[in-house]
Amino acid sequence: AYELYLRTARLDLDDYNREVREGCHVTSMAGSWLSVVEGFGGMRVRDGVLSFDPQLPAAWESLSFKVNFQDRVLTVRITRNAVEVANEGAPVELEIRGVRRLIADKVIMNCEL
Questions:
Q1: Distance between CA 68 and CA 47 in Å, rounded?
Q2: How far apart are CA 69 and CA 92, in angstroms?
Q3: What is the pLDDT of residue 104?
Q4: What is the DSSP letter of 18?
C-alpha cells in the first residue's frame, strides 16, 4: 500500500506521464489524501460515529491531519503508540480501535494504542 501511495502522491511531482505542463491531476491529489487519512489513519464513519484504526507505514513516525466532522473541527495526530484528537467544537463521540469515547469542546484526548 505504501509504494502505491508514493506513486500516487508523486505523480505530478515526478511528472511520470510527462504531462504536468497540461495541468495537475486533481483526482490523484484527492487519492493521496484518502490514502493517508482513510488508509493509514484508518478513518471511517460507522453508524454516524467517526472511528480510527490506524496502521502507520514503517517509514513514518507519525501523521496528522484536520477533519471537519458534524460541524466540529478535529485535529488528529497518530503515532505508533497513540492517537491524539483535539476537538474545536461541541462534544463528539469517537471510536478508536473499537473503543468509544466522548471528547468535549476544547479538549485534547490522548489514547494509547
A1: 17
A2: 9
A3: 92
A4: S
Domain range summary for the chain, segments of one domain joined by +: 1-40, 43-113
pLDDT value at residue 19:
84
Amino acid at 52: F
How is domain 43-113 classified at the architecture level of CATH? Sandwich (2.60)
Mean pLDDT by groups of 10 residues along the chain of 113 residues: 82 77 77 93 96 96 97 96 94 95 90 88
d(C-alpha 53, C-alpha 38), whole Å: 9
The type of residue at 43 is M
- By CB atoms closer than 10 A (0-12, 13-18, 19+), residue 43 is buried
The cell numbers describing 99, all together, are 473503543
Q: pLDDT at position 113, please?
A: 86
- The label of the residue with cell 462534544 reads 91
Q: What is the pTM of this model?
A: 0.84
β-bridge mates for residue 65, sequence order: 76
Query: Residue 69: beta bridge partners?
Result: 72
Do 46 and 95 meet the contact criterion of CB atoms below 8 Å apart?
A: yes
